[in-house]
Amino acid sequence: MNAELFDLFREHMELQDKSSKTIKSYRSALVDFDKWLFDVKEITDLRIVAFREIKNYREFLINKYSPASVNQKLIAIKQFYKFLTERKIISTDPSETIKIQKISDNIKSQYLTRSEELAIMNRAKLMGKREYCIIMILLKLGLRPSEVSSLRLNCVHLSGDPTLIIKNSKRSKSRFLPIPPDTVQAIKDWLIIRNQSTKIYHQRSEYLFTSQRAERMGERAIQRVVEKIASKENIRLYCTRLRSSFANDLLQEAKIPISILSNLMGHENISTTGRYLTASEHDVRKYVNKISEL
């Protein structure tokens, strides 16, 4: 029955002229919600869900994803139940009073502490060369998981001035990222392991990261590496937080001009980069204490 509801909702979104990307994103969010309901609540029919189930699911999402990702998933659920109510498939909308996350309320936890960074890197080392390389690229170069998954071998230049070329980014323009020494070494170490594989689909693969059964490691697999580290270290961690920490480190420690950071991040509009200028609670206290007379 749930599959039929998903199909009806898809047809509704198509009539609303939603993009194929939005339709795919909404369906993915609903499939995840459906699976959680079955695994945790043993509920198999989305029509009988009440406010409490959605609220519990929101708490589950908050502990696993960034505020922006939580909101994206909640909006999909809210739109789905609004649709079911309007079609009179259900009598009341259980998601109507569910509130989305306030992004501004999460500023102080947006960036990793140095202690968290060290714990994440150490855990990644224990997991393997590939996982450590992935974490270093996410943390030290600020890539999106989709960009990490799409990295090709011919985009990685380790000789001379080590550089990573990111193609097909959000603005469909290539950007060139200097690779720091620690990340260069992580890539070299992974390439030794990768190039020793005797699997044909690994040998013919043009991608930097391969999986056990495919010539390319998918975006979701990249995210799962981060989620596994979060679980092992009991850290609230997601790819967006690694990317935010990269930006914050460059702004606070390296004092990089925001125009240069915008290019490194692949932002089309510099105002998007401006959100990383928001200081953490620790930074604010540090600055204010500097004018203390004691």
From TrEMBL:
GO biological process, one term: DNA integration
Pfam families hit by this protein: Phage_int_SAM_4 (PF13495), Phage_integrase (PF00589)
Residue ranges occupied by any Core-binding (CB) domain in the UniProt entry: 1-85
Sorted UniProt keywords: DNA integration, DNA recombination, DNA-binding
Membrane found in the keyword field: no
DNA-binding listed as a keyword: yes
GO MF: DNA binding
Matches recorded under PROSITE patterns: CB, TYR_RECOMBINASE
CDD domains attached to this UniProt entry: DNA_BRE_C (cd00397)
Transmembrane spans: none
Domain Tyr recombinase: 107-289
UniProt-recorded name of the protein: Tyrosine-type recombinase/integrase
